[in-house]
Amino acid sequence: MTDPWVALEPGTDPAERVRMLRRAHERFTEAGTVERPVRSVVAESWRRSARAGVGPDGTASVELMDGELGAYRAEHPLARVMPVIRELVGTFAADGEHLLAVCDAQGRLLWVEGHPATRRRADRMNFVPGARWAENAVGTNAPGTAVAVDRPVQVFAAEHFIRRVQPWTCAAAPVHDPRTGRVLGAVDITGGDGLAHPHSLGFVQAVARAAESQLALFTPPETPADVLELTALGRDEAHLTAGGRKVRLSRRHSEIAVLLARHPEGLTGDELLCALYEDGTVTPVTLRAELARLRRLLGPGVLGSRPYRLMVPVESDVAVVERRLETGAVTSAAAAYGGPLLPGSQAPAVVRLRHRLADGLRTALIARRDPDLLAEWAHAPWGEDDLDVWRALAAIRPTAAVRTRWEELESELAAPPGWPRPVARPAHR
């Protein structure tokens, strides 16, 4: 192979290549060794799939359904460029009896469209909207591998790790946020062996670039000038944005902004004192000085007094997570959770809110019993000592690494008094 990213070079006999790949796949699943003619990108993907505990007879699980899927899609950045993606790929997919699929950065399929008969066949392997096709969930496949390696990739027939997917061939390319470079998801074309042609890889890459160009034409979603955006999850100093102007708040100002956002009706000076300070000796003069500095920072007409309140509506990341939890959109809530609320804050009201939000989300994750969502929490800094989550993960995905960590935490919990012990809740740092 002169280009390891192309599945079949011109002149290659597809039937013969399929036979060779099937033998190589069986060899790998039995002995763990990779033989020719497996491409390096596929061999590395097979190894990652095996390390993730994916079995060759597995299947994709559907994570997002009905209302949750609709809400998640509506909020996803790629929803804005679906018209241009459909315009470029729709006719090609329908005429060639292929499918157009678009996934998010976690490999979840958000849209699957195309030829009706092909869709019915794909339904039988859960290649449907809402299903998780991440490489660490279903092994080597074009959309999942494209977001895993951040490269356009073709996956031909028996290069797929899961056997039930091996009759298919697909090509996918990642789509990036043109401002940050972050992977937003991938555009995929799935169908027959004809997609192994080098042109299909170039085509899907061109579609992804067109989507990025379209995204670049959009200005960032504007928050109306009279609405504040507050970002406080996973950071000690919150960001407050209004009309495109971003202000980084000090820790104390961050605490005040979070509390006032929670109480649009306002808080008295005494209520703020109790919410912010453990030490009852802090005087109202100290608080008034902080509020005066915050008022100057925010500008006129934003911070009112008697009671203290924000004079314009506020949209916070805390409220986003809470709303999604209230509606049962657990996956979307987990995606919006950037970490513990102001993790360095010791303000009593902030500490209570931090624990309430994190505990509500982790309880929902445990009840949901989704191994990927649990693993994301367990491997995050705030979940590494979370015994309950590790126990739930071990019950669903009992890999050696997961069981070892769970048993370590169980042993520490049973240690004699005075020994370091894990907490049964996330560490809110």
From TrEMBL:
Entry's Pfam families? GAF
What keywords is this UniProt entry annotated with?
A: DNA-binding
Q: Which GO terms describe its biological process?
A: phosphorelay signal transduction system; regulation of DNA-templated transcription
- Domain spans labelled OmpR/PhoB-type: 244-310
In its UniProt record, a GO molecular function of this protein is:
DNA binding
Q: Which domain of life is it from?
A: Bacteria
UniProt keyword DNA-binding present? yes
Write down the InterPro entries for this protein, in alphabetical order.
GAF (IPR003018), GAF-like_dom_sf (IPR029016), OmpR/PhoB-type_DNA-bd (IPR001867)
Keyword Acetylation tagged: no
The name of this protein is GAF domain-containing protein
UniProt source species: Streptomyces phyllanthi
